[in-house]
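Task 17 of the worksheet. Students: predict the tertiary structure of the chain below and write it out as C-alpha cells. Keep your answer in the requested format; marks are given for formatting as well as content.
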Amino acid sequence: MVHVYNCHPFASQQIVQAEQEPGLVCCGGGVLFVESAGGCKIEAFQLEAEGCPLICRYATMGTVQSILHSEIGDYLVTIEEKNNVTYLRTYTNWRYQVAEKTRVGVRLLGHFLRGSSMRGAPKEQMEIIEIPLFERPLCVACCGVTGDLLVGCPKSLVLFSLKRQALNDKLSILDFERCLILHLPGLSPQQVAICAGYIALQAELEVLVVKLERLPGSAPTQMSADKKSQDHCLVPKDMITGAEHNNEIEVRKEGLAGHLDQDDFFIFPKHQELLGDRAKDCGVKVSLEWTGMESEARGILAITYILYRRFAPDFFQGCTVEDTRLHSLQFHPVFTSNQEVCAEGGRGVEPTCVFCFFSLPNTGYMYSVRGGVEMVSVYQYPEKAQQAVLTDLFLHIITKNALQCFSVRCSAVAARAEDPYIDTTMKACPPITMEVCALRIQLFIGLKALCHDRHHIVLLTAADVETREDTERAARRNLNRKSSSTKHRDPIEMSRGWNLYVVNTVPPLQLYNEMVEYSKKYEETNPLSQSCLHLLSEAHLLLRATLLDPWVGNPVEQPQSSDQNLAQSLGYTATNNIGSTTDRTTDRQELQKAFQESCAHLGDCFSRFDKRDCHLALPYYKMSGLSVTEVISRNRCLSSSPCGYGKGFLFFLKHSLYEETMEELTEETANEVLDIFGVAEPSQLPHVIASPSMVRASPDSGLAHLERLESIGAPSVPLTLSKAALALRMGDLQLYRQHMDRHTEMLQVYGFIEEHKLLLHGRGHTVVPTPLAHHLRDSQEGLLVAAMVALHENNKVKLDEADLFFQKLCGNLSGPQGGPQLLVDFWEALLMASSQEAVIQELLFRLTSVYIDRVTRRDSQGMKPLKTADDLINSCSHYGVPYPWVSILTPDHFSIIQDHQEDLQKLQSLLCGPTLDVSSILPLLEQLPDGDNAGLSVHLLCATKLDRHESSIERLLDRCPQAIIPYANHELQNNKMTLWWQKLFPELCERTRAAGGENTILLSALKETLVVVAMELNPLEFLDLLPDDGTAHFFLPHLLECSQRNLMTWSPFQP
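Model answer:
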C-alpha cells in the first residue's frame, strides 16, 4: 500500500530555450547537456542561473546514441555512430568551448599521458578522447565516487579508471586506463551501473549486482574463473574470440530464455531473488581479466555476488513482455561525513551506504547493498513508469503524462549505519520497513525523458505529433525538391510539440513545515490517526536526510578541484553551488531546530498510543531536547480525554523519573506527577517518590497517595521505607520509627536494593546522600553499611560512588587514608561479602593504607568501628589469626591508644591472612617507622611473607630475642628448616659468647635451638656444627641425644 498525499515538493519550473528539438538529455554538476541537430550537436545550459542560459555548444564526431556526464572529472561520455560503426568517446575540458572557434584536440586513449609528442606547453582546448573497444559498446556508467568509467558490451563489461595529470593550478588533463574486463558468457547488458566497487548490470529480464574486492596477496597478472583462457598465454586476452565460451552461452540461453519442445510450447523461468551468498548460485559465471599496469595491482581481485533478481512475465495474469521490461538501473551513494575532494578529483572516503534501484513499468525496487544486502522498499506505481531517478530525498518517476514524487528510506538506513544508538532508549528513527508514500503527482503532457541534478529535475516532453523518423523523412523530401519557390523549413518550425523543463524542488525545511501543517488535519480528525504518524515520520526522515548531507551536517569550506577552478575562471560553477560557510551554518542551525521539533511531534504521537510502539515516545522526547516539565504540559490535555494519559506518555514519564537526570520538578509539577501515577499506575508510587526529580513534592500529598495504595493492596518493604522517608521529611520522628519498626533490618536491606534512590541520588561524581541516609548515619549505621554493601553487590552502586557517598555523608572529602570510619566499616563489610577478585584486591589495598596511616599518626578519630579485629577474624577469610610470635611483639596490653590497637591488630591479621599481596603495599611501609614493636611487627610480617627470613632473624635477635623461638617454630619449617643450623644456631652462639653467657634469654633460645638441631642432624653433622671454643658439658647432652636417636633409627640390614 502506498500512501498518497498532496504536498508540494516542486517549487517552480522554467523552460530551457533550446533552438532545436532535443534528442537525449543528461545533467550533472549544475549543467544540463542536450543532444540536438539529429544527434550531431551538444548544447550545455547553466541550471543554477535564472533562465538556464546557454554555456556553450559543440559538434560531435558522430550521431550520439547515448550521453552521460560524470561530476567527478567533469567529463562527458557518449556512444556515437558514424558510417555504421559505433564509437565510445569522452569530451573533457568542454567548458573551453565558451569561447568561439576554440580549438579541439582529438586523441586516442592514453596518448597524452604516455606519448612523447604532447610534452610541450599545455593548450587550453577541449579534448575528445576516443576509447577503442573490441566489442560494440551498448551502455555506459560513471562512478559517482571515483569517476571511473564502466562500459557494457555484448559479452563483457570493461572498466576504465580515471587518471588526472595536473598541468597548473587551473588546468588538468584527464585520461583513462583500461584496468579490468568482466567476461559475461550468455548475458548481454542493456544497462550498467558502478559505484565504489559495486557493479550492476541489467539484462532483458535480469539484474545482477556484484562487488569487486581486492584481497591481500601477490599482485595478479590475470585472474579468471575460467581456466581455459590460460591456453592462449601468447595471445592477449582481449584478442580472444571467445569461442571457448560458446557452450556456456548456449546452455545459459536455453536455461533462461526457455526452449521449444515438440508441441511448440515456450517455457519461461520463474521469478527468482537471490541475496548475499545465495546470489552466486544464479548461474551467471563472471570471470575477471586484469588489464591494468602491474605496478598498480595491489592484491588479487575477487568477485563477490551481492544480488540477483530475475523476472518473468505472467501471461495468465494478463501480463505482456512490455510489463516486465526493466529500466532505470542505478546506484545511489549516501555520505554522512565531511567529504573532501581528493587529489584525483574523487571523494576521499567510502560512502556510508550504497543503494541499488531498478524498476519494472509498474513496480520499483530499492536495495541497500553495502554492509549486507537487504530490500529497503517496493514502489507500486499507479500507472506505467517510463523512467525513474533516485535521490537522497525522493524517488522521481515519469509516466506518459505525469511526474510523480515518492518518499525514500535512504536516511533511515544511513542513520542506523552512522549511529549505533539508533533504536535504543536514547535515540530513535522511523523504521526502514515503513510504507512509502507519494507526495505529489504533477501532470505534464508527453513526458519522454527525466534526469536530476541536486534540486533540479529536468523533463523532456514531446507531443505525439510527428516522430523523429517522420521529421527526418520530411526534411529529406524538402531538400530534394527542385522548385526554387519552395521555402526550406527548419526542423524547429516543422515540429513545435516539444518542451524542455527544469523543475526546482522546494527547500527541505519548507516542505517539512508543509507536511507538519498537513498532519494537523489528520490530528484534528483523529489524534490516534496512523496517517498523522506516517506523515510526521516522512517529514522527520526528510530532515534526517538533509542533516546527513556532509555539506549541511559539517559546514566547512571544501577544497576546489581543477574543474571548479576552470569553471570559475570562465564565469560558471563546475560542481557544488553552495553558499558561504556562514550561510550553511545558519541553515544547519535552522534544520537542527526543526529536527528537534520533529522529534517532539513524533513523541506526542507515540505518547498518545497504547500499542506496542508506544515506548518510542521516550527516545523521541529525549532527542527533542524538551524538559520533563515541558513534556508534561504538552500532554496535559490528555488528562481530560476519555482514554486518559496514553501508555507512551506514562512510559516516558516513568523512565525519565527513574533515570538520574537530576532535573528537579517544581512543587506544582511534582504534585501533578503524583496525581498522574496515583490514577494511572499506583504501584509505581514508591519508586516515583524516591526519584531525585521529586524532592520538591509535598510529603503530605505523597504520604496520602501511599496510604491509599497500602489500603488497596499488601504493604511492601519499599512502600514502608518510602513512607518512613516522607515522615522524616515532615519531621515526625515518631511516625518514622513506627514505619521503620515494621520490618527487620534484613528485609529493609532488600527494600533498599529494590529502590536504592531512597538512600542516594545521582550517579558518578554527582552522588548525593538523601535525608534518610543522613538519619541512618546517626541512628542505624549498621543498616546503612549493610544496605550499601547490598547495593554494590547487586550492581546498583559502583565502588567509587559508594566512597563518594560516605565521604559526603560524613562531611569529610579527604582521601582514603583520612577517610571517615563509616567508609572504612563499609570497606570491611564489603570485603567480607564480595567475591570479585579485582574488588577484593582494591579493598585490601585501601584498608591496608588506612590501617598503616592510623598506626603511624596515632590520632584517634573518636569513632568506634562496627567490627573489631576479632569479629573480622571470625567472619572474614581474608583476615588471619595473628602468628604467636606477633603476639609476643605486640601483646594485648601493649602501650598504644586503644582505637589504634584495633587498627594494628586488623593490619596484622590482614598480613597473616592468605589473600593480601605484600608486594603491592611495600611503598606504604615507608611511612611506618619500625622504632617500636608495633612498626617492627608489621615490617617483620612483610619481610617474612617475602621470604626474607635471615634478615628477620637478625632483627628479632636485636630487638626482641624472646620471640625468636616462636618465630622459628612457626616460620622455619619444611624447606626453611635448614635455617635452624645455618643461620639461627651460629647467630645465637655468637651473641651468647658476646654476652659472656649471662643473657638468659639467649641461652634459653640456644638450648631450644640445640634440641631441634639434634633432632634433624646426624652425629657427625652435629659435631661439625659445634664451635671450637664451646664448653663440652653444655653441648654433650645434646650430642648424646643426637647419637641415641641415630642408633635407634639405624638398621644393620641397611646397605
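Marker's comment: Residues 581-608 form the longest helix (28 residues). The mean pLDDT is 82.
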